[in-house]
Amino acid sequence: GRWGRATTWALQLELGTPDDGVVSSQALRWRDDNPGLTTGWQWVRDPRGSKLMAALQARIGVKTDGFVGPSTITTLQRYLGATADGEIWSPSATVRALQRRLNTGRF
């Protein structure tokens, strides 16, 4: 129920992005609101976005800007059938649903 390097790596493989286990260059202001986003998240003051986030956004049908934020999280939660509140808690039902889908090849 926590989104760390292993979850990121599995999602990168699923979406065909570089697979280093890191969600790169994300806005530092979202870190504290999402304690379920743990290891492998690069939080910076001047973010440039992530290829993984852009690929995820394209897959779930939300604006493709490469940044995790409330809109992306809410859309992901709806896509996974989880409660849509725009945040990733620790532990997170959203992350558990994502992990189950990745483990079964049904993302």
Task: Summarize, please.
By secondary structure, this protein is mostly helical. 41% of the residues lie in helices and 8% in strands. It has helices spanning 5-15, 51-60, 70-80, 93-104, and strands at 23-27, 41-44.
Strand order of the largest sheet: 1-2
The secondary-structure element order is HEEHHH
Largest sheet: 2 strands, parallel
Q: How many distinct beta strands?
A: 2
Distance between the termini: 16 Å
What's the gyration radius in Å? 12 Å
Average pLDDT: 97
- The unreliable regions are none
Helix content: 40-55%
Structural class: mainly alpha
Number of helices, counting only DSSP H or I runs of 4 residues or more: 4
Structural shape: globular
- Residues in β-strands, percent: 5-15%
Written description of the protein model:
The protein has four helices and two strands, in the order αββααα. It is mainly α. The longest helix has 12 residues, at 93-104. The chain starts with a helix and ends with a helix.
